[in-house]
Write the structure tokens for this entry.
Amino acid sequence: MRMERKWTPAQKSAIDTRDCNVLVSAAAGSGKTAVLVERIISMITDPDKNIDIDRLVVVTFTKAAAAQMKDKIRKALDSMLDENPGDVNLLRQITLLNNAQITTIDSFCLWIIRNHFPEVNLDPGFRIMDEGEKKLIENDVLEDVLEEFYAEADEEFFNLVDAFGMGRDDSGLVSTIDKIYRFSRSNPWIDEWFDECMKVYDDETYDNPAIKELYDSIKNVLLDYRDKYNRLVDICSEPAGPAAYTGALQSDLLGINEMINSQNFGELGRRIRIFSFEALSRKKDAGADPDIKEYVKGQRKLFKDYIGRLNDKIFLKDDEGIFSDMQGAGIQIRTLLKVAKVYAKRVSEVKREKGIIDFNDMEHLALSILVKKEDGKLVYTETADKLANRFEEILIDEYQDSNQLQEVILNAVSKTRLSGENNNIYMVGDVKQSIYKFRLACPELFIEKYDTYGETGDNVRIELQKNFRSRENVLECANDVFSHIMNKNFSGIGYDESVRLNAGFPYPEYSDSNYGDGANKSTDVILISSENEEEATTRELEADRLAKLIEGIVASGVNVYDADKNIYRPAEYRDIVILTRSVTGWADTFADALMDRGIPAYTDSSTGYFSVREIQVILCMLTIIDNPVQEISLAAAMMSYFGGFTAAELGMVRKLGREYVDKNVHNNLYEHLKAVAVLGGEDKIQETDVKQLSGKCALFLAKLTQYRDKSSVEPLYDLCWEMIYDSGYYDYVGTMPAGAQRQANLNVLLERAAGYGKSSYSGLFNFLRYIERLKKFDEDFAEGAASLDNENLVRIMSIHKSKGLEFPIVILAGAHKSINFMDATAPVLVDQNLGIAVDYVDLKRRTKTPTIIKGAMARRIVRESIAEEERLLYVAMTRAREKLIITGVVKDADKTLDKYRGRAEQLAADGMLSFADSENIKNYLDMIMPVCLMDSDKLKGSFNVMVDAGENSESDAFESEEMSDENKKAVADKDLMSQPEVSAGYPLLDELPEYVPDDNAAGRMKLTVSQLKAMQAEDDSEENAYMDESVKAAIKMEAYDETNSIIPKFISGKEVKLAANERGSAYHRVMECLDYSVSVNIEGVKADINRMLETGKMNELQVKSVNPWDINTFVQSDTGKRAASAVRSGKARREQPFVFEYESQLIQGIIDLYFEEDGELVIVDYKTDRVNKSAAGEQNLVKRYAVQLDYYAKALAQLTGKRVKEKIIYSFALEKGIIID
């Protein structure tokens, strides 16, 4: 039965408003998705409207969101059908749901293309290329285009290369063209945008849009400084004020007014250039307060610095010089655009020839099908008219993240343009959560509608303010911060009463002091002092303090509300999340610190794939298969698993090679290897060690030659398969620490090799180029992480990734991290409205001068960057349900507090962060601290500001020293790790003894994230794969700028389903929790799995990925019956971890199941690998996993002292157990 939900009046209005365009401004946690789903349900079940669900277009931001929305609609319809089994309309809507356009904008465009491909002359067999292939094609095309321009010997092009090249090559020009090309494709009409870019340089008047933009922004700042100066004059007139300063301040104020009254940009520039500051009077004033004097001097210095920056960056020259530089830069821009146009056209032609498209092509091709532009006017096609007549309403989720191109496409399929009535576009979003500017989102679209839509009429705006997520204080603290810092004049959006967050979730009262006291209700801001820290970096220092803080939270019994159970319970690690602006360089450091204190932690940074040892080894092998004279790769391969050479042996190969190599060949390592390989057969060589080394070289050379021969005839996938599986390398890495993840990494490489085989490129050489391009653009392969919904650990994630999520306790870390303004300082700036900006390079004088266009654009980008950071902070602060903690590191806490106290007083006087002060924001502390330190009577939320000065300091807290004492103390002598659940059937079988390492044993008992990655990059074995530092340094991967393109999740095509390794984990989880007394038949198995879902042992995705018949087949098998008998008698153990020493090396792993029969042990290992149901498939599994089970047997024999009589691989694919000899 479908439960009737109680909607707020605003939600009800958002659901029921019809016959007009609607913009729903939905604040964080306001239930916008539920409202959107309910609106769809109400439309398709309204008997008066008779609207089918496939006559709606519902656009979401990600495929995951689309899948979840479809699922919610399906469940709602199923529930309604249960109540009305004979309802024909409900049955019809359920049937039509599968084909409904509830999808991402890319998928919607793809649907249009597949149905209308002849209209754009597209091959019907077209395919979508991945990012690697796309980058290869673009790189090849750009190289060809530049070669053609070089061949033409055009002087303007050569000047362009000189201006934008990077010393000895043209890499700077290449990156510039690529940047312009990528940005241009977010525009509906690319050529038109190119032309608009040039018009900025052709307009040498004060009406130039860039100059007007700059003029307005400077005027805004000057107006703020005028207000500041008026207050300073008033302060000087007070009894304790420095009256002697009044004359200089009034002189400054006169100059500011003259600047503000300037009629145009030229006059403004002249007034700023001639402006001078009168010296402050040195006359002694006994009655003046020294602190007030310093405050006045400080405020005046801010203005002096601002005028200095304008003179240094903007008004370097007079009007004639400014426009002259614009002309010179315009010549370079014209040539740059000429190259970019040719490049864009050529890329399009190549892709069309190959019958391939990328995700951005989907949008442009769909646009071409729907709209033409003739004489500057939009002309809609017949297809657009048919689609517009078909769709009753266009519903857009996360509208704040749309761009201009998507806007034109969706308007084209709206019947609004046909009927002339604004009645069928429904937009939902929150511009305060628009945080995807780097993906070229255009929040201005939302802002423009927000400012023009009203409460009634054809265009209606509805506000959803009620937050059904967070406690009142969390929301009020957010309200306090953003009502003071979101200046509409600066950020484009304001924060007034109409958008304030209001608590809507009825948290039950709780009397226990663990939650009810004021300290726990407050939002804590912790300043970590680094003044006395010499060794630790600021990140390490903050990580250490966070570990102690979290330890204290969990140990002290702070309670959180569990909505599912409707009870309060002590906080666990799973209730805590650490949010950072960026995970790169932060997440691993934090995870290390947490795990060092025994706190389980997880971070999915999805980086570093190409730098892990197992992948580097395979790539080195592929490199020398392609070209064996690559010395660094050859040396690395020889000293890896595949060669087994030691550093001493490698040196000996070098020495003997130089001595015996044929003088007519190149003197390189490959020739040395060949020369040494034949020495063993020569009688003149008698030394045993040389003969052994010769044999080793011969074996390695033979294997390499075999791989090289196969590479020319076999598909790349088959070659990689042989190297990874047939060589035993897969099993080998599986026995190493984190073996399962290593094996998953190798499987990902195989998947990419298979995908590469379907691309327009072929051959090993091009695959290696493909990998290099992925590395350059930081496009790591990422193995899907196992579902951790039910794991008791602290999660560490970026603010971007946390959007849409919620957690009981949120720690926003790194609040001191500086905002990244690199986009504003790049050699070439690109902006949607102002076009392209560069410095003017005078090649004759060899000088480079910032143009006025670049100055205007840089200021705009800085402003947009700060505005986006404000929105990111909003997202971070609204993730917390019950408790928000903000941390940052400062050098001198006292000075920092004094600085922010002054700003707090200024903010209290202004009421809102001024335009001028907003421009000076450097980090999140600059946004938060002035608000936190304001008088409490001016705030509705409760802030608790503390200083953490180290281990032995008394934590300085404002309002709450008690909180500091409790939450800062380290909890010693207590195991905080959650203990694994022990089945009642296990006690009779002894626990495996704890491993006690030998004093000389190599290895570590505890692995942290960074240590694990380091180990992955270390030697394959202590004896055979030692690599000296010079070789390690030589093969170290080149570091690329992390600001290169980041590929959105929705573009990478990831859907809401478990990856292969996650599916395997789900099966293992079922087998671990299986109740053999219940799972005696298929009904029992289904009931048991459902119990696991209800008790939180598995999540819904995991359950859906497991076929109950697979489990039932195991239960009914001989292996399953033996296992059930052992479980009932208490002689079985499941998911048993172990660590043991073997041949001076630590081996660790987890045994799926082992049980005792007649005093001996049987090992069972579950496999979900997809293999052929044949003898060959069985042999493949045995070959792949025999080594692994041998290690398991050795471990059990060593640790229990009992003989392992049988090793069984149970294959769910083959539906049988395979006994390994």
